[in-house]
Design goal:
25% of the residues lie in helices and 26% in strands. The protein has 303 residues and is of the alpha+beta class. Among the domains are: 72 residues, Type Iii Antifreeze Protein Isoform Hplc 12, CATH 3.90.1210; 102 residues, no CATH class.
Length: 303
């Protein structure tokens, strides 16, 4: 009888202990779930943010937003404000929806230039878009050719060689003098000072516009950068009505930095200001440079 009472008593105790254990376990799970489901505020990118974009531009373009997310999804060190980072820039590309952390930003003065300008060359940047920039396939270290198209403001324009024009003016003066003076002798042979028709029509003696021509060969790409436009209609550096690239607020303006000689820099800037510039991506070792005729309406259908 006593044994039964003891066993019954032990069973009651173990049952109570089991119930208490289950209750404690369930409470722990509930607390853990409540903790994980607790919402916290965090800054996330509302659009793609490119490397080296200033934090001030990021804020102006509303490229970040505050979101409430479960605490269990919070990235370690995630930021909920950029107020103390206004003089920083993005060190890396930041994807849309990505949480912002301190390691993604750095002070401008602490970031070194990631390229070295070769001896005898200078670095110059030009704006480009996805079409004229080979679908954004160009990377630092690549080689490119620069092609420019020049179009006059009005109708098609033909510019003759300076020697042709000068000689023509001299011929006009000679003709005028001959008509008022000694016209005793006439000859069916043209004056030796006149250019022959074939020479005048030689393509090397004139320039026809519009014209497209490869201007620079095997140019090394030093760097690729970008910025986010903060105002509607903001432009890249070029002021030419034909080459400038406009961007709406929040839209990216891409730039390409090239290593060129001073003479090439003059050509490149003139082309950006007065025409349209296209880039072609070359093999790693570049290609052999050769003279090309350029293309106009006169030879566009030639092989």
């Amino acid at each position: 009888m006593k044994v039964r009472i003891v066993l019954l008593f032990l069973a009651i105790i173990f049952g109570i202990a089991a119930v208490i254990g289950v209750m404690i376990y369930l409470n722990n799970i509930r607390s853990s779930m409540e903790k994980e489901s607790e919402l916290v505020s965090v800054l996330v990118a509302s659009q793609e943010i490119s490397k080296e974009t200033k934090v001030s531009d990021i804020l102006k373009s509303n490229s970040v937003e505050t979101k409430e997310i479960p605490k269990k999804y919070l990235v370690e060190g995630a930021l909920n404000s950029l107020d103390s980072y206004t003089d920083y820039i993005a060190k890396v590309d930041i994807g849309k929806g990505e949480q912002l952390t301190p390691d993604k930003f750095g002070k401008i003065e602490d970031l070194r230039i990631s390229f070295t300008v070769p001896d005898g060359f200078i670095a110059i940047s030009i704006p480009y878009d996805i079409v004229r920039g080979v679908s954004n396939l160009i990377n630092p270290g690549d080689k490119v050719n620069v092609i420019a198209t020049f179009t006059p403001a009005e109708d098609d324009l033909v510019l003759f060689n300076k020697d042709i024009v000068t000689q023509s003016l001299l011929n006009i003066n000679e003709s005028a003098a001959g008509s008022t003076g000694a016209a005793e002798t006439t000859s069916s042979e043209p004056s030796s000072s006149w250019f022959l028709t074939d020479e005048v029509m030689d393509e090397s003696n004139y320039i026809v516009f519009p014209q497209t021509k490869i201007l620079l060969w095997n140019v090394e790409v030093l760097y690729i950068g970008s910025k986010i436009a903060t105002d509607t209609g903001e432009e890249a550096e070029s002021k030419s009505s034909t080459s400038k690239i406009k961007a709406d607020a929040g839209e990216e303006i891409s730039t390409l930095t090239l290593a060129v000689t001073p003479e090439q820099a003059e050509k490149l800037v003139f082309s950006e200001e007065m025409g349209k510039v296209w880039l072609t991506l070359l093999p790693a070792d570049g290609i052999d440079e050769k003279e090309t005729p350029g293309r106009t309406y006169l030879n566009i259908i030639e092989e």
